[in-house]
Structures are given as C-alpha cells and as structure tokens.
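Take a record.
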Amino acid sequence: MASNQVRASHLLIKHQGSRRKASWKDPEGRVISSTTREAAVAQLKALREDIISGEAKFDDVASRYSDCSSAKRGGDLGPFGRGQMQKPFEEATYTLKVGDISDIVDTDSGVHIIMRTG
C-alpha cells in the first residue's frame, strides 16, 4: 500500500435517491426504489449501533446487508488514494483513525458507514 493511500471497509445502503437502484441482493431494484433515505439511514444507524456495542462484527454485518459488491469481502474496498472515491467518502475515510467507524456518510451511491482498516 502506498504511503498516501488508506484502506477501508464500508457498508452501503442504497435508497430512492441513489444513482444506481440495483445491487447484488436486489438486482431488480425493487427494495431500493421503495426505500427512502430516512429508512436507509435508520437501518444503518441500527447496524452501526450493533457493531459499536460489540454485538456484531463489521464484516459480518457488511456481508449480510451492504448493497455494494464488496459485501462478499466483508465490505473491504482494499487500498485507495485521493481522487479514487466520491469526495464525501474519501474525506470521511481520511479523517478516521485506523479501527474507527464513521458516522453516516452520504454519497451519490447511497448512505454508508466506513471503517478505516489501514
């Protein structure tokens, strides 16, 4: 990993406002198209609570609930540098310390929680 890169895992919940309303677990986009941003945020907050309280592990939750194809890797996005991710996502990741989990981050893809892993 280059010195100016970070590594992160994330959990993405898509909603009506997401630019692509389909995912590996909702190929037709039926659920996503009927999910409001508020509902997506509420679900994400509950999942984040479970992770922070220690009731659930980030990678288990990501592999079950994330709308990103990274779900099959427990949400791991691998290393990335500046300019490779959507701006709000990049900024949130670079602000975190390794092991920290972000609050809700909004992008064109949907709402995320991010765990910096490197």
